[in-house]
Amino acid sequence: MKLSFGEKIRLLREENELNQSQLGEAVNMTQRKISYIECGKYEPSNDDIITLCKFFKVSSDYLLGLTDKK
Which distant-in-sequence residues (6+ apart) come within 8 Å of 60 by Cβ? Predict the structure, then answer.
């Protein structure tokens, strides 16, 4: 089963032992925005995707579900 964008963000966040507030602070987003991204209530902008890719050091292809390779 393929993971959604939000599920991948949640897993990456948990792998890095961060809570939503800590991740939000690190990438200049609110905790609420991180929460909405993770549960699929908010579709991230291109800038959000780039920021999260850089922070987690993963490709946009991975986050967008085009590949399973980080």
Answer: 49, 50, 53
